[in-house]
């Protein structure tokens, strides 16, 4: 399912216009992005938690040349599913 499919499904189930649903979805995604970029987390009880995790620096290898390269530490977004979502997927 892509974003357009999601907007269409929500609009059909809620009776809202596609334009309104898309606006709300874009606002939600923007808020999650803004919160994660400042180091916060978004917790939706029963659904899951969006957070950032830190990857430590490590040594990698260029597959073409075999030369070792240093990969710096970085922050990456992560999602941890909640219990209700896990149960629904089973």
Task: Give a written overview of the molecule.
- This protein has 90 residues and is of the alpha+beta class.
- It is built from three helices and five strands; from the N terminus they run ααβββββα.
- It has helices at residues 3-14, 18-37, 83-89; strands at 42-44, 48-55, 58-61, 68-71, 74-81.
- The strands form two sheets. The chain has a three-stranded antiparallel beta sheet.
- A hairpin with a 6-residue loop joins β3 and β4 (68-71).
- The two termini are 19 Å apart.
- The relative contact order is 0.13.
- The mean pLDDT is 96.
Give a summary of the structure in a few sentences.
This protein is of the alpha+beta class. Helix content is 43%, strand content 30%.
Topology (SSEs and partners):
Elements: H1 3-14, H2 18-37, E1 42-44, E2 48-55, E3 58-61, E4 68-71, E5 74-81, H3 83-89
Antiparallel strand pairs: 1-2, 2-5, 3-4
Helix pairs in contact: 1-2
> Please, how many helices?
3
Query: Low-confidence segments, ≥5 residues, pLDDT <50?
Result: none
Main beta sheet:
3 strands, antiparallel
Strand content: 25-35%
- Shape descriptor reads elongated
Q: Strand order across the biggest sheet? A: 1-2-5
- What is the gyration radius calculated from CA atoms? 19 Å
Amino-to-carboxy terminus distance: 19 Å
Describe the oligomeric state of these chains in a short phrase.
single chain
Q: Count of DSSP E strands?
A: 5
Structural class based on helices, strands and sheet pairing:
alpha+beta
- Helical proportion, percent range: 40-55%
Mean pLDDT: 96
Pattern of helices and strands: HHEEEEEH
């Amino acid at each position: 399912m892509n974003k357009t499919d999601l907007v269409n499904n929500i609009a059909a189930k809620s009776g809202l216009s596609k334009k309104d649903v898309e606006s709300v979805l874009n606002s939600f995604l923007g808020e999650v992005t803004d919160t994660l970029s400042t180091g916060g987390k978004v917790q939706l009880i029963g659904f899951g938690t969006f957070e950032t995790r830190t990857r430590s620096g490590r040594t990698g290898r260029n597959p073409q040349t075999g030369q070792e390269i240093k990969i710096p530490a970085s922050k990456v977004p992560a999602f941890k599913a909640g219990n209700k979502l896990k149960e629904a997927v089973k």
